[in-house]
Amino acid sequence: FLTSAKAKVDFSGRYEVTFNAGTGDAYKAVGIFKQSGNKVTGTFLTETGDYRYLEGSVQNSNMSLSCFDGSHAFLFFMTANNKTGKVNDLEGKVFYSNSGTENFVATRNEQFKLKDPESITVLKSPGEKIYFTFPDTEGKKVSLSDEKYKNKVVLIQLMGSWCPNCMDETAYLSKVYQKYQSSGLEIIALAYERTEDFEKAKNNVLRLKKRFMVDYDVLITGLNGKAKASESLPFFNNISAFPTTIILDRNHDVKSIYTGFSGPATGKAYVQYTEKTEHLIEQLLLKK
Fold first, then answer.
1. pTM for this one?
2. How far from the centroid of its chain's Cα atoms is residue 251's Cα?
3. Of the residues 73, 108, 143, which one is the last residue of a structural domain?
4. What is the pLDDT of residues 222-269, one digit of tens each?
């Protein structure tokens, strides 16, 4: 963004954000911004993921942020509601390249947190075992009950090659697999591609595996969307986001179901997620 006017306010901080306030489609987010002069960076965290790295500028009492994540373009415009040097309230509008616009309001709130991501998707019956069978990229049927996964800690990634947050998580999980595979960790990704054509889905997945150096199994579900994902995994109450990550112990009992992913752009939230995930994996690997 070109800047011709000095910044009159500092947007830096953490905000409680409400998109579509006052409507039946309202939802919460966390806005995190860091400003230096006219330049500003940041992101929005929602209960299903984050908007990755946003960058823009501040002119007078207005802030603009944008990004292109490879699949979607986002453009945010925000205006401070007060005349002081530190913003407490703001209102704005986001433009999506493929799905219109949304209005939002935000209030500075350093303590605001979103719903616990481990409370959104749960087992319908506590203690229930999960199961699935899908083909890998070579067409071979793979099941959680296969010998390869017996007595292994298993992380299951529900994802799609089209999903930017899934890309961020895949980059992270690729490193996690390299770190813990020799100690007894296996990862299985279930790909919910935007095509039912196996060859097209296969090519999409192979490109993703090559880009992020993925050595773990990625299975082609042949299904598309959260509703179909929920149908294919009927032991969960619902699948509300890609990615969703499930961690099983060596007996394949469910120990964690995490909705969404806080990527590197979220800073502290990303660090907290990675530390918590690896701590759980390490604890489960210790139990033979």
1. 0.91
2. 27
3. 108
4. 999 999 999 999 999 999 999 999 999 999 999 999 999 999 999 999
